[in-house]
Design a protein that fits this description.
It is built from 18 helices and 17 strands. With 487 residues, the protein is α/β, with parallel strands linked by helices. It has 2 domains: 133 residues, Urease, subunit C, domain 1 (Roll); 308 residues, TIM Barrel. Strands 1, 2, 3, 4, 5, 14, 15, 16 and 17 form a 9-stranded mixed β-sheet that branches. A hairpin with a 2-residue loop joins strand 16 and strand 17. The longest helix has 22 residues. The N and C termini lie far apart (59 Å). The site of zinc ion has 7 residues, from loops.
């Protein structure tokens, strides 16, 4: 197998022990899905690599390079592919729909209507599209990820999508990205048709997904109860026991908007975090998405149990949920990753924009420009997120996955970029669209700004048709009430 080779004017390995290392003229060498070498490039290095390997397959250059002159240096920055620690792959067809409303109204008016539309009209849509309409939405989500340089994603697969793990895995494998599937469940406080009754249905679904997919190289299966309020205490305990038995992660939305937290206080006399702690489901393998409404007591519980948090600033601000006490979490030593959430609530998968907003918001809130520097938030969408998901990605180092992105530094908004301002420019000056090459598991997914892993134009056209039919359906059914604990 001919090794892959990439070289750029700048390289950010984001690897321990020196995560802030900035290399001028750097290269990455990989074979199959694994990185062999990372470091500064010079001509003797090029000669050595060619002598050792014969030929090299050069990213954006000759596929069988034999001379150092063939080892093209791009005017760009190489860094690890971005790691998305919380998202939903069924939402991209509903971007821009039902905006300027809070979370539950958006769930009822957009997400639930859309997923029910897919369920009810599946057969007709399948014939029209020549593919499962669910799989089409998952492929579109992968196109979005690759467009922005995301090579690994935890997909929280709740709602009607929880029945579609096979199609989700198939879309991710076709696209070539890594996926952690948090298989959804709910047995209360949702509309009737979606409830897992008896709750054993949720565990059976997990078992089936595990049997079919756990052995796949770039797929993980974990329990993903949708919400702490929509899964009863017995079910949450059983799901956590399932995860402990198989040594998997456990993922759940938590404390996103105020109404839910108030419901917990009223019903149980405790916050969602206190409730979860008493159930015994918080530990170092539990990842909570959002955790916006957080009391000082909650912070202590999260710290003491080792619980992880994924912060989704785009969704939290657009839906008016508020923002979590990010600095307090970090000061307490709680591991936090930054993510985008689904495309429906964030309206894009621009994970660099999410990192920027996380920093910008906290600087303004605390009237302190020194907090959350660019390096720190960049780590929270790469190395920290990968550590949280327990995957061998998020850094460029020998032995890790060959998941990388090359950002084009010739775009006007990124000129001038040098070694001393490259991280800052990625966070503050990029518009997210500059990912020129994306490689995942050693496979080129985006080649010179062109998505090559799936037929993005065909997928886009199908999603456009889906969205037009959805609007007609929505006119007929309105909203699907039944989501949201505080009513
Ligand atoms: Zn979410």
């Amino acid at each position: 197998m001919i090794p892959g080779f990439a070289r750029a004017r700048l390289l950010l390995p984001l690897a321990d022990p020196q995560r802030d290392r900035r290399i001028e003229d750097g290269y990455v060498l990989w074979r199959g899905g694994t990185i062999l070498e990372v470091g500064p490039y010079d001509e003797p290095t090029g000669q050595r690599l060619l002598a050792e390997h014969g030929t090299l397959d050069v990213l954006g250059g000759p596929s069988a390079a034999r001379a150092p002159a063939d080892l093209v240096r791009h005017d760009g920055v190489l860094l690890p592919g971005f790691v998305k620690a919380h998202g939903h792959d069924h939402e991209s067809p509903i971007i821009g729909m039902v905006k300027d409303v809070p979370l539950t109204a958006w769930l009822d008016g957009a997400v639930n209507v859309f997923t029910q539309f897919l369920e009810e009209h599946e057969q007709r849509l399948r014939e029209q599209l020549g593919d499962s309409p669910h799989r089409v939405t998952y492929l579109k989500a992968k196109v979005d990820d690759v467009y922005y340089g995301i090579t690994s994603a935890l997909t929280h697969h709740c709602n009607f999508s929880k029945y579609r793990v096979d199609e989700l895995v198939s879309a991710a494998e076709e696209a070539g990205t890594r996926i952690v599937v948090a298989v959804g469940s709910q047995d209360r406080m949702y509309f009737e048709r979606l409830l897992d009754r008896p709750p054993q249905l949720a565990l059976d679904r997990l078992d089936q997904a595990w049997e079919k997919h756990a052995e796949r190289e770039r797929v993980s299966i974990i329990p993903g109860p949708d919400q702490l309020f929509s899964n009863g205490p017995e079910l949450l305990r059983s799901l956590k026991a399932w995860a402990r038995e198989r040594q998997t992660l456990f993922h759940c939305h938590s404390s996103e908007e105020l109404g839910t937290t108030e419901l917990f206080k009223k019903e149980f006399g405790k916050t969602p975090v206190q409730y979860a702690a008493e159930l015994g489901i918080l530990d170092e393998e539990t990842i909570l998405a959002h955790q916006v409404q957080t009391t000082p007591e909650d912070l202590a519980i999260l710290r003491d149990t080792g619980t992880r948090v994924v912060h989704n600033p785009l969704a939290n601000t657009i839906l008016g949920s508020g923002m979590p006490p990010l600095l307090e979490m970090l000061a307490a030593g709680i591991p936090v990753a930054i993510s985008t959430d689904g495309s429906g609530s964030a309206d894009n998968q621009n994970i660099l924009a999410a990192a920027r907003l996380a920093s910008q918001y906290q600087k303004a809130l605390h009237k302190d420009a020194t907090v959350l520097p660019a390096q720190q938030v960049l780590e929270m969408i790469t190395v920290e997120a990968a550590r949280m998901l327990r995957i061998d990605a998020g850094s460029l180092a020998p032995g890790l996955a060959a998941d990388l992105v090359l950002i084009d530094l010739t775009r006007p908004n990124l000129v001038p970029t040098r070694a001393d301002n490259v991280v800052e420019n990625l966070i503050w000056a990029s518009d997210g669209s500059e990912a020129r090459f994306v490689v995942a598991g050693g496979r080129v997914l985006k080649d010179d700004h062109r998505i090559v892993c799936v037929d993005a134009a065909a997928v886009g056209e199908k999603v456009q048709r889906l969205s037009e039919e959805l609007v007609a359906y929505k006119r007929a059914v309105g909203s699907l009430k039944g989501t949201g604990a505080h009513r």
